[in-house]
């Protein structure tokens, strides 16, 4: 027990527990050379913005050499930079500039799959190659002619729609691709694959990188043998069940091996695993103080509460606030004593939260963005800010199929309309959930192309950049930007924000999100109206905050008896 207590104390000092992470999607952040695509030099040019915001860690989505089939998540060379984004020298300069400002750099680690243009896969296509077993190859289903309809080894569907198997005529077998057909899955059962990955990770750490965000990392161990799953209703007999492939029997073995080979815990490197189909028990095991696996994980549970169960995310359902509160509370309670939470509303795969869970009308966009930020940042865990979130950027507002660029959205529209779904319903789903919503360029100025590029942007800039932009936000003391800056400062300054024990209040209330965080004799009380209507609370609904210090609020003279639309406040009770 004494050893465990000492380990807990040591892990309790991990630097990322008091940090806030800012995610950059490079092609949409800032373009320095006028080609319409963001680049590393553009990031360097805007580091003062991040420094003013107060974030501690910059997480960079993939900038490796890539054919860009999935915007860089299809990697053809892990130790080179795609010319779209710059050079290795630019990355070295970025690392140095961040470290000089007291910030750290986290790279995206995409090792469930590579590009089909990676040399490993090119070699693997030859059945006689020593790299044949570096990927997941299978013969046609018994009794079927290879390449024929229905001959795929299993009925698994790609998460980008269609079959997860691609027939390779040159070698006479199928390879597995859980995402695009140009993203073949690596075979982690092969120790040579694992050692190659660990060598690459060490190469980046030695270059100065401070950690890794691990893309769909719990898919690297797949349940064997590969068998058919239950078909997903309405999607052509294919199975889209992440549970068929996630959290396989050797996952923890692989994570421990990776941790030791790269020295993730020993070097105090930042690690967060993106994980499909994980629950609290999984997360506790993977992030336990004694596990030596990961620092934290991304869960998707709260991101599926506004869709119909068992089908694609584009089949929408209204968000029920008590469900959202219950899910976030479940993770707060579940990882209270062991493990650690990641806190996020937005990322490159999710729509803009102010349009999704807030109110992006002119009247309530700012206050709802602030309140969404407050209820997230006052939870226990490491918060993530996605580029433009600090400005209250909104969804793209697309109305036509031709406006979408993302492979997932384009494929869904094609297949859904071919299956007879009404075009209007398909477009409604895309407008709400397409990944393009997160990928419109960052809005720096009110000028042409929002100051993102002097050329033609790869994805159109949102027309509302005239009023929603970084220049205007930094100049306005009441902006979303300055509210986020203060939230980040509270995490840095108050131990109760970092370590306080969570308790949910009013779990069944349809409009109010309220909770406490307690550490010693200090109690942090967060009260938020998550609606566009006034709400009256009764005495005793929340703790008495008479005389308490107001740490942050969306409105002047906040009260806890009548809350205005999207009003929120955080009170500190006790010394």
Supply the key terms.
15% strand; five-stranded antiparallel β-sheet; 17 helices; eight-stranded parallel β-sheet; globular; 575 residues; Oligo-1,6-glucosidase, domain 2; Immunoglobulin-like
Q: Can you describe this structure in just a few lines?
A:
The chain is built from 17 helices and 20 strands.
What does this structure look like?
This is Oligo-1,6-glucosidase. One of its GO terms (molecular function) is alpha-amylase activity. InterPro entries: GH (IPR017853), GH13_cat_dom (IPR006047), Glyco_hydro_b (IPR013780), O16G_dom_2 (IPR045857). The chain has helices at 2-11, 40-45, 47-53, 88-100, 119-124, 191-206, 251-262, 280-287, 321-334, 353-356, 365-377, 407-418, 423-433, 436-439, 470-475, 480-493, 495-499, and strands spanning 21-24, 57-60, 64-65, 77-81, 104-109, 137-138, 165-168, 173-176, 211-214, 270-274, 296-298, 342-343, 382-386, 501-505, 512-519, 522-529, 535-536, 549-553, 562-563, 568-573. Among the domains are: 114-185, Oligo-1,6-glucosidase, domain 2, CATH 3.90.400; 501-573, Sandwich (Immunoglobulin-like). Helix 6 runs parallel beside helix 7, helix 11 packs parallel to helix 16 (480-493) and helix 12 (407-418) packs antiparallel against helix 13 (423-433). The strands form five sheets. An eight-stranded parallel β-sheet has the order 11-10-9-5-2-1-13-12. Strands 14-15-16-20-18 form a five-stranded antiparallel β-sheet. Strands 6-8-7 form a three-stranded antiparallel β-sheet, with no helix packed on it. The two termini are 32 Å apart. Residues 1-12 have low confidence and may be disordered. Helices cover 28% and strands 15% of the residues. With 575 residues, it is an alpha/beta fold.
